[in-house]
Amino acid sequence: MREPDGPELLTIKAAAAVLGVSEQTLCRWDKAGKLRAKRHPLNRYRLYPRGQVLELRRRIHSDPEATS
C-alpha cells in the first residue's frame, strides 16, 4: 500500500496518530533514543521525519515487540 504524500516533518500529534500511540509515548521514545525528534529552531517543538515514522509503523505492525 502506497502512503499518501504529506509533509516531510510531522508534529508530535500527527506522528502519534500515525503510530497509534500517545504523545507521551513519543516523548519517552525520544528520550530513550528509539525515535529521535528534530527540534524546531524557534519554538523547540518536536518534529519527526515522516519516513522514520512510517518505517517505525511498518516495524510495529510486522513485529509488535519492535518498540520494547
Give a description of the structure:
The protein has 68 residues and is α+β, with helices and mostly antiparallel strands. It has one domain (9-61): Multidrug-efflux Transporter Regulator, Chain: A, Domain 2 (Orthogonal Bundle), CATH 1.10.1660. 46% of the residues lie in helices and 13% in strands. The protein contains three helices and three strands, in the order E-H-H-E-E-H. It has helices spanning 12-19, 23-32, 50-62; strands spanning 9-11, 38-39, 46-49. The chain has a three-stranded antiparallel sheet. Strand 2 and strand 3 form a beta hairpin. The protein starts with 8 loop residues before the first strand and ends in a 6-residue tail after the last helix. The mean pLDDT is 87.
User: What coarse outline follows from CA principal-axis ratios?
Assistant: globular
Mean pLDDT: 87
For the terminal residues, how far apart are their CA atoms?
Answer: 26 Å
- What is the gyration radius calculated from CA atoms? 12 Å
Taking strands numbered 1, 2, ... along the chain, how are they ordered across the largest sheet? Answer: 1-3-2
**Broad structural category:** alpha+beta
Stretches with pLDDT under 50, minimum 5 residues:
none
CATH class: Mainly Alpha
Total beta-strand segments: 3
